[in-house]
């Protein structure tokens, strides 16, 4: 069964993939186009969420990735939210990235807390999962 946090992060990843196009965000001239920041971050969030949904106990190393992506989105969108010369479309995209990044950050911190709790309950060793077989048994 997929947890609420994994489902939320997957939906947030899908939104990040579609938001620049759904909000009508146009590319900007210059070195940095924030539209692709959203698309790449959305792809990473969606892939991490799917992998974590399929094998949550086998991928505890994946837990810190989501909060890092969420923090990245919050920081990069707030840097782009300078009110001077900003079109409303760019403003909507920046707010969308900031809010979605905050959701990914909170969900990711929950995933990290869950992974640490599992690790502590296991006494710092790998958690034995149903279906694992000992190599030394028949």
UniProtKB/TrEMBL annotation:
Residue ranges of every copy of the SPW repeat-containing integral membrane domain listed in the record: 8-109
Cross-referenced Pfam families: SPW
UniProt keyword annotation of Chloroplast present: no
Keyword entries, A-Z: Membrane, Transmembrane, Transmembrane helix
InterPro entries: SPW (IPR005530)
Transmembrane segments: 34-53, 65-86, 98-116
Superkingdom, natural source: Bacteria
Glycoprotein listed as a keyword: no
Record-given protein name: SPW repeat protein
Protein source organism: Saccharothrix xinjiangensis
